[in-house]
Amino acid sequence: MDEELTDGYKEPCGRCGAVAWALSDGLQFFCKNCHNVIERTQEVVDVSTYLLNNRISTLSRSRKKTGREGGRQWMVCEGFQFILKHQAEALVGLGVCPQFKTNVLWDFWKQYLQKTRQAYTRAPVSSTMNPVDLSSESEPESAFLSEASDLSGPTSASAEYSSDGKSSVCSGSLDAAYYFNAKERRSRHLMSMPRTLALCHLALLWLREAITLADLLRLVSKGLVPYINVHEHFPEEMKFFGRDALIFRAETIPSYTKVHRESLHLAKVLQLSAFPPVSQNCLLHPVLLSLRYLMDANLPYKLHSLLCQVIEKTAMGKDHFLTFDPSGSKSILLCYDLQAAALIIVTMKLLFKLDDQAEWSLSRKAKKKEQDNDQDKKEESKQGNKMFCLRSWYMIVQPALEQARKREELVEAKRQWKSKKPVIASMKHKTVVLKRRRVVEQLQSSFCTLAGSDPEQPSSPSSFLFLWGKEKEADGPSLHNKHLSGMLVKEGKEKLLVNKKYWHTDFKHCQKRSCWFHFPDLEPTLPRMYVWVLGLFSFLLGVSKAEVHKEVVKVEQRLILGKTVPEKDTNEPQRKRKRTAHPV
């Protein structure tokens, strides 16, 4: 009977040399002796032979094919639990406290399942509801057509048609259908891939770990924290099929703003109490966090003392201001890394003004003072060379910044977004999808061999993007030990800033409630040096210049006005630049 099914195929097996072919359920030829599977398939099956002989012969029990063949029944929340487990293990491996996984993140996850009534409750929502009819939603079906596109036949590989003519796509999980209904997602606060990072961010914040949100996203980008195509590591019994790809397959890294917004949303859903206080010995405190970014930006340590005075005057170092309290009336989740960068920029504006005029004038004076010291006393010239010059700083940091941007673009261009484990959208096209995946992998391997390029290896994690010093691999000379004597002038017993005025954008309220941010319109009117400094810190944090500028405006409001306008208003600096004389 096997000879009839295989059309008398007599070629010997390439592995064992035997001629004993049979057909699997997927109509693939396999050797009964060594179970070797070849790419030859049976395209047409003539059933008349079986009818004439009045008997049926198959290789396995007859059953209805589903997306869960060979696996067990599982829920979507089990998949997210598996992802969170791997993310937690990766963070613990990078040095995070072991309690992060065993206590904090696990407790947050149990609270989430209980609050959303998915588990740890006597009446789970999923068990009391009927599956959602998704036959009319065609957009989600087209999201994973790339794995099986251009297939022969009038129908797509992602859709299988039922008797009533409506398309339906099965999935490996039991409750995937609920995740494609907008009302269900909103009312039940269903989990998503960006929310896994948001939950990790909340757990890190609870433990007051030094990993900020920008650090977390950078670790994800480098592949040190599982996120992109993490479904490849699902257990074999959890069959990943069809619509599951739209839930778990992440081919982009979420933005800083999105994860921050999801973190605040989850904190309210979980009804968390006030987080442990962010005291001055905590690494998230602006006094310590700003020192880290000063070092990365190659700025002098002497700048930190003035920055601490800004923190004290704005009251941004107080425990009650820094500690996150989701249960409070004004629950604000601070962006600690953006806040530290904004404090540095405001301090630089206090010293150098950054208006495209004052900073270069001060640089010329600092250079002239160094030359005078060289001519007068050679011994004092060594001390004179330690004076910080903004022009020299710019000439050192700018090339290093450009090189770092090019490296990042190159790494991004080489990133493999597509999963190595193909997503099977329809069982009848499984053989074609697997074959095409093997062809793609072979072509990629051949191309890498011809091009002589090795696959990128994940770099070791570091809190700093730049290395300043005399080392061979350094990005440039270090300016950390330079002093700021040229920027301060003695008046009596006190030292005052040479720069007597401070400029800032308008602090007017936005009249439109739907208006968010007009930085693209505002940017052409801002000084170029200020925009360049924004670009430097936006690269260090992996955010946009608009987000850094928004935090700068918040710090300026506290420094100059002694208060802040409501959150919806701080997002809207006006288009027209205003330079205000303000004694510091």
Q: Could you describe the largest sheet, including whether it forms a barrel?
A: 3 strands, antiparallel
String of helices and strands = HEEEHHHHEEHHHHHHHHHHHHHEEHHHH
Please give the order of strands in the largest beta sheet.
Answer: 1-2-3
Helix content: 40-55%
The proportion of strand residues reads: under 5%
Domain module count: 3
What are the salient characteristics of this protein?
two-stranded antiparallel ribbon, three-stranded antiparallel sheet, 584 residues, mainly alpha, 3 domains, N-terminal domain of TfIIb, 22 helices
Would you kindly provide a brief summary of this structure?
This protein is mainly alpha-helical and 584 residues long. Helices cover 44% and strands 4% of the residues. The C terminus is likely disordered.
Describe the structure.
The protein has three domains: 2-53, N-terminal domain of TfIIb (Single Sheet); 76-150 and 165-270, no CATH class; 286-397 and 479-570, no CATH class. 44% of the residues lie in helices and 4% in strands. The chain has helices at residues 2-5, 48-53, 76-93, 99-115, 125-128, 182-188, 193-206, 213-221, 244-248, 256-270, 286-296, 303-314, 319-322, 336-352, 358-376, 378-384, 390-414, 430-451, 519-522, 528-541, 545-561, 567-570, and strands at 21-23, 28-31, 37-41, 160-161, 167-168, 488-491, 494-497. Strands 1-2-3 form a three-stranded antiparallel beta sheet. It has a two-stranded antiparallel ribbon with strand order 4-5. The longest helix is centred in the C-terminal third of the chain and has 25 residues, at 390-414.
